[in-house]
Amino acid sequence: MLELASYVGARWVAGTGAAHTLLNPTTEEPLARASSEGIDLDAALRHARTVGGPALRAMTFAERGAMLKAIADAMQGEREALLDLAIANGGNTRSDAKFDVDGAIATLLAYSETGLSLGAARFLVDGEGIQLGRSARFHGQHVAVPRRGVAVLINAFNFPAWGFAEKAAVALLAGMPVLSKPATSSAMVAHRIMQIIVERKLAPEGTLSFLVGSARDLVTHLGAQDVVAFTGSGETGAQIRSSRNVVRHAVRVNIEADSLNAAVLGPDVEPRSDMYELFLKDVVRDMTQKAGQKCTAIRRILVPQEWYGSVKQDLVELLGAVRVGDPKYEDTRMGPLASREQLADAREGVRVLGGRHAFGGPAPVGSKGFFMSPTLIEEPAEAVHEREVFGPVAALIRYSSNPAEIVARGNGGLVSSVYSEDQDFIERTVMELAPHHGRIFLGHPKIELSPGPGTVLPQLVHGGPGRAGGGEELGGPRGLALYMQRVALEGSRPVIARILGKA
Ligand code: NAP
Asked: Per residue in 199-236, pLDDT tens?
């Protein structure tokens, strides 16, 4: 069986001791083994800081951007093999796999462009200079410089390619060396990407390390210049954030956790209108794409009282047409969940949400593989505002007056969406939702090829307050701030101008 190794200290190192077995979630066939036991994490981080850091900081933004482009191009060249791995190890349909792999390539390319636009600089000038005294000589200027530590990038199981790329692209462009750790159960795609990068020598020594298997005590080795960017469950995020070492050294931590994303249908939207059809399409796509294992997927469907019956009937019909099965077949619309644990967790979540099953239910589907039916719940328990069911599950909720108040019970989210053509309703709802979200998606049938609320775009920020972790990633050049230290320069204007290369 394939043994996945880690890439640390500029070499591939296999772990020792008990390994985790990675399965094909469709057939339950073992595919690979991974262990991080015995790997010297402290030495791995030191190598990244002392070898990778200086190499990266010597490069301009444009050169770092060119490196990202080379990685994207190499991934594009191996796209078919990466898609096959995502189908085998992730239970992805081909379309799900493309969502992950193509999303990774697009994000790398977007940050490569950002690098080119930042040009020959090695640090960022933040805003205009400020006259601080009566004389123009007393001057202030903010700049942002790369941190001197390692960016430890920890990913969730659902997007092994995109998760790897969206974090690494931003950290590398900012000038920080990376140690990337995929979730173990679906690590094969990220492992192959790392092999491609190493085989073709696309990143200077020490700039990109890769840890497969358990994180062990990784966060206990971090210091004040390091950054942790974590995506995963709120529970693991809280453990990392509260770790004694992280607290003591004020290690910068960004958490992307779970979210009870809502889709709100406006009272003005009549059944059969284009806006109504778009709403249904986005809901069904979010429930079934990646078998609902998307942090941005719609979990709560808010429908005005008078359209409730119609929406329910239409969703039941659309979900009934979704073919669940082996993702390697073209007519399969939804594959299995990623692991036995995820299936058990989603089934338990359905039980916790209570209510009635307008469609589907928690029972496993078939005798092999981690399959479950798309499940539409109505009249859910109050737990619908508390418990994320990370699977093909959403709940219908009727409202009579203020949907934003109901959405806010979810205590902070990544994205919610509004489908309406009534400008007053849109403005009122957006302003009420805004403080609770990182992104608000305004559905409109005239937007061509609208990706729906579930797609994270590199140009826009991703993250959210409260239960979503309180983090923020991406957002074009904004994303670089996580990996840089902003510093105010205060002094004589000509001296500062020379530092900025302006004199
Ligand atoms: P998880 O169990 O919390 O694991 C996430 C990552 O953390 C994995 O790589 C895991 O490694 C690692 N990890 C576990 N314990 C750790 C520790 N003590 N120190 C450092 N790393 C540790 O989450 P998951 O089941 O993979 O992901 C599902 C959750 O992620 C869902 O709740 C979903 O909403 C959320 N999610 C959020 C976003 C977002 O952008 N906000 C995106 C995707 C998913 P092992 O795999 O080796 O245990």
From this structure: 999 999 999 999 999 999 999 999 999 999 999 999 99
Let me know if the fold of 41-257+472-499 is the same as that of 262-459: no
Q: Which residues are catalytic?
A: 256, 295
Q: What's 302-324 look like in SS3?
A: EEEHHHHHHHHHHHHHHHHCCCE
* Residue that is written with structure tokens 């053509």 in the block: 421
pLDDT for the residue numbered 18: 85
Going by C-alpha positions, the residue among 233, 227, 147, 223 that lies closest to residue 179 is 227
Q: In what helix (H) or strand (E) does residue 87 lie, and over which residues does it extend?
A: helix 79-90
CA distance 341 to 61: 42
Percent of the chain with pLDDT strictly greater than 70: 100
- Specify the pLDDT at position 77: 98
CB of residue 461 inside a 6 A radius of ligand 1: no
Map out the domains of the chain as residue ranges: 41-257+472-499, 262-459
Q: How far is the CA of 299 from the centre of ligand 1 (A)?
A: 19
pLDDT score of 477 more than 90: yes
CA of 257 to the centre of ligand 1 (A): 8
Q: How far apart (Å, rounded) are the C-alpha atoms in residues 294 and 388?
A: 11
Kindly indicate whether the domain formed by 262-459 is annotated with CATH number 3.40.50.40.
no
pLDDT for 366 equals 83
Minimal-distance CA residue to ligand 1 atom 34: 258
Nearest alpha-carbon partner for 193 in 94, 296, 70: 70
The CATH code of the domain at 41-257+472-499 is: 3.40.605.10
Q: From CA 474, how far away is CA 315, in angstroms rounded?
A: 33
How many other CB atoms are there within 10 angstroms of residue 467's CB atom? 20
User: What length is written for the chain?
Assistant: 503
Which residue has its alpha carbon closest to ligand 1 atom 41?
A: 256
CB 412 within 8 A of CB 237: no
DSSP state for residue 240 in the 8-state scheme = H
Judging by beta carbons within 10 Å of its beta carbon (0-12, 13-18, 19+), is residue 16 exposed, middle or buried? Answer: exposed
* Cα of 490 vs its chain's centroid, Å: 37
Q: Judge whether 246 and 167 are in contact, CB under 8 Å.
A: no
> Taking the CA of residue 427 as centre, how many other CA atoms within 13 Å lie in the half-sphere pointing to its CB?
3
Q: How far apart are CA 168 and CA 162, in angstroms?
A: 10
Under a CB-based contact definition with an 8 Å cutoff, are residues 293 and 339 in contact? no
pLDDT of residue 449: 87
Nearest to 227 by CA among 158, 175, 161, 183: 175
Q: What angle do CA 15, 21, 22 make, to 5 degrees?
A: 110
Ligand 1 binding pocket mutation candidate from 23, 181, 227, 233 (most atoms within 8 A of CB): 233
